[in-house]
Amino acid sequence: MKREGLSVALFSLFYLASGILMILEAILSTFTSFHLGILGASSIVLAFMAMKKRRETTTLLLVMFIPMVVFGAVTLYASLLDYLIGGYRATLLAIVLAAVYLTAVAASFVYAIRNRKIFTK
Q1: What is the pLDDT of residue 2?
Q2: What is the 3-state secondary structure (H, E, C) of the chain?
Q3: How many CA atoms lie within 13 A of 108 on its CB side?
């Protein structure tokens, strides 16, 4: 039971942190990337729903999974192109972070689907 609480906390922390970073990026881009604000707000809502162990958590995650994967894949692709064509070493951090984000999204999706009985309130 204790391990279940830790895994839900890590799940929530990932979505809370990524949501805050996406909203900050949307603000810094003066909302030209408004889709990041929407995805970030949805991630924060998902984090709080997971903390409360709400049943709708898996539904929201299913709805958000494709946009999150598309965001991560496009970011990874653009960063790789920027690095390979332009040779900018600063984009290596963006490449690593996009790869970590995609891995965490996939892992959290599998976790939520396999353990959907946790979210039953």
Answers
A1: 67
A2: CHHHHHHHHHHHHHHHHHHHHHHHHHHHCCCCCHHHHHHHHHHHHHHHHHHCCCCHHHHHHHHHHHHHHHHHHHHHHHHHHHHHHHCCCCHHHHHHHHHHHHHHHHHHHHHHHHCHHHCCC
A3: 30
The values of phi and psi at residue 32, to 5°, are -75, -25
80 and 92 Cβ atoms separated by less than 8 Å: no
The widest CA-to-CA distance across the chain, in whole angstroms, is 51
Closest by CA to 101, choosing from 75, 63, 81, 62, is 75
Please say whether the beta carbons of 40 and 20 come within 8 A.
Answer: yes
Spatial neighbors of 47 by CB under 8 A, at least 6 apart, are: 11, 12, 13, 14, 15, 16, 19
Structure confidence at residue 12 as a pLDDT band (50, 70, 90): very high
Q: How high does pLDDT run on average in the chain? A: 90
